[in-house]
Amino acid sequence: MEACFLPTDLLVEILLRLPPSARRRARLVCKLWHDLVAEHTTEMQSRAKVLLWHAGSAAAYLVGTCNGLLCICDNRGERTGGTVTLVNPATGEKLSIPPLPGAAQFALNYHCQKWDRAYSFAYHPTSGQYKVVHVPCSFDRVCDYDAAHVLTLGEAAWREVPDSNGKRCNLHAGIVSVDGVTYWVTDGGTARIVSLDLDDEHVASSTMALPSLPDKPDDYNLTEVDGRLGVVLRSPSGTREAWVRDKGKWICRYVLRCKWQQIPRPYFAHGEYFLKFEGRLLLYVYSRKSGVVKVSRKDEGRLVAKMKDDSYGSNYQTFAYVKTSEPLGVYDGTK
After folding, report:
1. pTM of this prediction exceeds 0.90
2. Is the pLDDT of residue 2 over 90?
3. Rounded to an integer, what distance in angstroms lies between the CA atom of residue 62 and that of residue 72?
4. pLDDT digits (tens, 9 = 90+) for 92-128
5. How are beta strands 159-160 and 137-139 bridged, if at all?
6. Is 137 or 23 the better-scoring residue by pLDDT?
7. 47 contact partners, CB below 8 Å, separation of at least 6
8. For residue 100, how far is the Cα from the chain centroid?
9. Quick one: how far is CA 13 from the chain centroid?
10. Whole-angstrom Cα distance, residue 185 to residue 131?
């Protein structure tokens, strides 16, 4: 039975008056509300686009995107811990994030270029909350955090995550947030995947094994595929494999058999297609098929971007972006 007894036209008018974040939560009430929001709001009708970000020479680094909002970290700013800012490109609004707790002790080393790698930007689909996560890590003899920290947009202070001590992140493997959970891989010893539930902000007591053990710490990275956790593995022969976590098991879904081909980070599965860098300058898309998708040098994709500089594809990051009218002012915790 539907959970709504209002006339449809009146219900649509009410839903359109809600802010975008509230409309996304309203979709969870029932099938009718889900369909009405999808049919009558522009952000649900807009198809996500691929955002290509040059990470090699950027003045600021893109941590992640959620529902059209960008989380950007300025590693070269004077604020220690990196200066984290949220931006809505569609409205031009910006929102500064409070500095990370304890970052003042690294004041003499503010020039470090890796602060962005320790952050993740996430959206919890049930609560409708946006959260910025800083994982436990150590790098460049500058940053040394033994616990994870979380900031909820609209609040003024970071919180330390219980039970996250001793689970330091291998920053080479990246951090991904999928369906309200943030994942990272432990640094040192046997690599294991740690999961942080952003609802109760607790780290799971058990960790997850990778599909296979890589030869080197930088031979793999986490990713997201269709709302599921994924891992990209790179072998010395040049083969790239993308594995997806499904119903508690790892399933190999993509295989690239040429060392000149690269699977973009952190986002490569885009709707009915997947992305692939080739050589220095070319970005291709290929149709996704059922079963394992295998691509060799002979397979022809569709060229969608050609970089103008002399950088390799590994200097670029790819993200999903959809235009939104989401206001950032409502999340200003200083007001």
Report:
1. no
2. no
3. 5
4. 999 999 988 877 666 555 455 678 899 999 998 888 8
5. unpaired
6. 137
7. 271, 322
8. 19
9. 33
10. 19
